[in-house]
């Protein structure tokens, strides 16, 4: 399982969100504390962020571990953002290696990440992809379970579903066909939607900012752990959590 995080709030350097927190995503790439599956997250990483005045995010993804990328550390020091989604990857057996399989996945204004696995991938692909037009299946960003889950979410978003609805519907549909772990994270730069389904997820919401993360990035107060099988919806104004019920 990977580790991921999303942020909305006042502009801060990317480094402050990803590299500096003592137990944050950078450290979680080799020493996660709450990860239930896998040990290190060294099979790639990615960061997507929004710049003021441009609704389409930038992405920086690499196939190797985050600690081996000195260029990223430099970039993260000088680039500031109000909204970000980042992930470190521990690849699931049977899934493609490489940059294209590292989250965040993206399209239009969206950034997306999947922490989890579809056991037996690509078994049951027919059932899992049912309802997805062939061109969307052929256009997957990577040959991985996460890219398929992203295509299912994006298909629903493009059909007009709200972000929370698109995630909830995807999780409940995939879970009907597979004993999947589906911690999903989605942002358009102004809101975050997330699910906990099989692994840890928490948030810290303060006045004007929200961080949603697989596990706390520090020992400071304010982190709230979500119950498993929850749907979280957040904006910089506040966060709500409700059960995901089949
Ligand atoms: N299954 C996904 C992948 O292979 C996500 C992995 C994870 O959560 N560790 O990239």
Provide the fold topology:
Blueprint: E1 3-13, H1 14-18, H2 25-28, E2 45-49, E3 58-62, H3 70-78, E4 80-88, E5 105-107, E6 110-117, H4 125-128, H5 134-138, H6 145-158, H7 163-177, E7 181-187, E8 191-196, E9 202-206, E10 209-213, E11 224-225, E12 230-235, E13 238-243
Helix pairs in contact: 6-7
Bound molecules: glutamine.
Domain Glutamine amidotransferase type-2: 2-246
InterPro entries: EgtC, EgtC-like, EgtC_Actinobacteria, Gamma-glu_amide_hydrolase, GATase_2_dom, Ntn_hydrolases_N
Pfam families: GATase_4 (PF13230)
Features:
six-stranded antiparallel beta sheet, Glutamine Phosphoribosylpyrophosphate, subunit 1, domain 1, single chain, binds glutamine, alpha+beta, 246 residues, 7 helices
């Amino acid at each position: 399982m990977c580790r991921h995080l999303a942020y909305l709030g006042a502009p801060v350097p990317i480094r402050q969100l990803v590299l500096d927190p003592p137990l944050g995503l950078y450290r979680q790439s080799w020493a996660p504390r709450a990860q239930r599956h896998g040990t290190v997250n060294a099979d790639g990483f990615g960061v997507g962020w929004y710049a003021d005045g441009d609704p389409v995010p930038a992405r920086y993804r690499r196939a190797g571990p985050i600690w081996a990328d000195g260029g990223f550390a430099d970039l993260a020091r000088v680039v500031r953002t109000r909204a970000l989604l980042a992930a470190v990857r521990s690849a699931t057996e049977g899934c493609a290696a490489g940059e294209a399989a590292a989250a965040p996945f993206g399209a239009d204004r969206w950034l997306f990440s999947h922490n989890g696995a579809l056991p037996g991938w690509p078994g049951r692909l027919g059932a899992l992809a049912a309802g997805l037009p062939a061109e969307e299946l052929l256009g997957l960003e990577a040959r991985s379970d996460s890219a398929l889950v992203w295509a299912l979410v994006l298909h629903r978003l493009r059909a007009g579903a709200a972000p929370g609805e698109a995630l909830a519907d995807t999780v409940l549909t995939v879970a009907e066909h597979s004993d999947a772990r589906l911690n999903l994270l989605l942002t358009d730069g102004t809101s975050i939607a997330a699910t906990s389904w099989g692994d840890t997820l928490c948030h810290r919401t303060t006045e004007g900012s929200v961080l949603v993360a697989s596990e706390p990035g520090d020992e400071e107060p304010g982190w709230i752990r979500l119950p498993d099988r929850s749907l979280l919806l957040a904006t910089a104004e506040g966060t709500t959590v409700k059960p995901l019920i089949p």
